[in-house]
Amino acid sequence: MRIRTVDAFADKPFSGNPAGVVVLDEYPADAVLQAIAAELNLSETAFAVPSAGGYRLRWFTPGTEVDLCGHATLATAHCLFADGVPSPVAFDTRSGTLTVNRSSEEYALDFPARPATECAEPPGLSAALGGTPRWVGRGGTDDLLCELADEQTVRELRPDIGALAAVEARGVIVTAAAEPGSGYDYVSRFFAPRVGVNEDPVTGSAHTVLAPYWSAKLGRDTLLGYQASRRGGRVGTRVAGDRVVLTGSAVTVLDGTIEL
Predict the structure, then answer these.
(1) For residues 173 and 141, is the Cβ–Cβ distance under 8 A?
(2) What is the largest CA-CA distance in the chain?
(3) Which of 43, 167, 226, 259 has the fewest Cβ atoms surrounding its Cβ within 10 A?
(4) Active-site annotation holds for 65
(5) Which residues form the signal peptide (predicted)?
(6) What structural domains does the chain harbor?
(7) Which of 44, 147, 151, 199 is catalytic?
(8) In this predicted model, what pLDDT tens digit does every residue of 185-219 receive, in sequence order?
(9) Contacts of 211 by beta carbon, 8 Å cutoff, 6+ apart
């Protein structure tokens, strides 16, 4: 079985967010897919199978299947285009049809927008983060969006991962406006210990929540976000009604096989 590792939202190896990509003729048992994802131990591994009009696409963390994953979708499209599949490619997923277009070495992902709705701060959140957010909302598949004071606070945040796993949320997005002159509009980080990902390097799905939030605050549909993890990565965003177009690049870093 062929397996590739692709650094997504990256223009050079060992940056952005690595995803496993497996293109199959048909799906094996779910237990096999989960075991492969656990073996690779990346934040997500994507499994694609041809279907009418495109491909069926599923994503697994080392611990569970998830409803939406941006970087592994980008990584899968990158592999399919490298294999000669024409652009655009459509994916049938748990989150509906997702389309990826290729323009030169950049990819545009058409995803559903997932605006956050302001909510009361869940018990234990501030203690787990080590600070009190100035705004908290829920968006998408039960992710929390937390605006912090400034970019430095986001970058220097050292949350208690064990305590964060006890907070009622699939994942926690922390964000702030970028410092003037930084070259991007906002920064973010994403923590999802409940699904086996303590900190995700660059999270496409989080930007479907971030883009509507910051576009509304900044008054512009097109923005550039920077996810300030150790690896780091830039994600272009454009809000178009109830959709968000995410843009970024990808690099294949490993191409091999797994013996089953």
Answers:
(1) no
(2) 52
(3) 259
(4) no
(5) none
(6) 2-110+248-257 (3.10.310.10), 117-241 (3.10.310.10)
(7) 44
(8) 999 999 999 988 899 999 999 999 999 999 999 99
(9) 113, 223, 225, 237, 238, 239, 244, 246
